[in-house]
Amino acid sequence: MKQRSVPHLLLLPFPAQGHINPMLKLAELLSQAGFSITFLNTDHNHERLTASPRLRFQTISDGLPPDHPRSGPLLQDIFFSTQLVTKPLFRDLLLSFPQDLPVTGIIADGIMSFAIDVAQDLGIPIFIFRTFSACCLWAYRCIPKLIEAGDLPFEGHDDMDRPIKSVPGMETLLRRRDLPSICRLKDLENPVLQFFVYETFNIARASGLILNTFDDLEAPILSHIGPHFPQLYTIGPIHTLLKTRQGDTQPTDASNGSLWEEDRSCMAWLESRPFKSVLYVSFGSLVVVTRDELLEFWYGLVNSGKPFLWVVRQDLIAGNDGKGEIPAELEGGTKERGCMVGWAPQEEVLAHPAVGGFLTHSGWNSTLESIIAGVPMICWPQLADQQINSRFVSEVWRNGIDMKDR
Length: 406
Ligand code: UDX
Known about the structure:
The protein is an alpha/beta fold and 406 residues long. It contains 15 helices and 15 strands.
């Protein structure tokens, strides 16, 4: 009798930290469940990850030259280069798998919907994993309604407290300032705005939509989203599933999706701090700040008199290396109460008993990780889904305060 072959899934993340982390965790979970997995990284990112031996890794071009910035505003060039350059390469790659290892299913990121065209053309079933929050996905989906109602476009930063009533399920919640950042683009023909609207509608062509959220958190919004997709799977928070399946800790040979090297010295530093005394400060992987903003936070942190653990990524300050620039009058307070690292093991940090608060940019992974760790948030959202996530934190889930646009 012919032996039944193991299904072989290819996972295609969008090549940014906040997308790679949950996709890699999904890959590990599916591998534990018996699927054969190929994880498709970009050439640019591949060397930066720690790959688990259980997963097969392949690489593909993101379509940009090697020296093109992949953080800050220029990251958005990837939206277009993947459609132009990566899409035909993706087709060639799918056809290049040997006959005894064909790709039998694809899971692609929710802003890589070019993969649906290729998969359907080759007759391969495809599912979409959208790594943003459901509340943000629903707001994107309602952009045509917002335009029809005259809520969009709006000029610059005018009248940002004006109520927005045309997103069903959020009629009494949103103000202009709470809409996803692309809604601040006053030109409706802007290619980035068009890109997100197109992607949000196009993903409904896949066999199903997977979201890194859970019903207890976003049920009312999920009930609006559900009818627009063939199948909806809420599998979050995905970082907790991997741990639960393995007992309390991840397997030692699990992949690590960090694109920066983790500085674990902060864990020892936390050990000597009192229960819930430390403010953890991190703005994720994409946000960049001006030097003035960095200094303003610095003064606030030092003058608060509280211990703080601050992630200052090498590329946090636009065009600058943020390290080694402690102003003389802050140095004492920083040494005494502060610990600064270039990149932290964030999930572990948030779970540490010494951490009592999180000053965050409200990225979706950070928000979920903080909710699960039970750490209240001070939200300073900057881009993408962060503005709407922070509104839900302060007004719906009530586990933090929102200081956007202040
Ligand atoms: C941004 C978004 O705002 C997010 O919602 C969207 O889905 C992707 O783009 P990012 O800025 O990377 O993502 O933030 P976030 O979604 O919070 O993801 C950051 C990830 O990096 C988290 O999983 C966090 O644990 C991890 N991280 C961050 C570290 O491991 N160490 C750090 O020092 C900082």
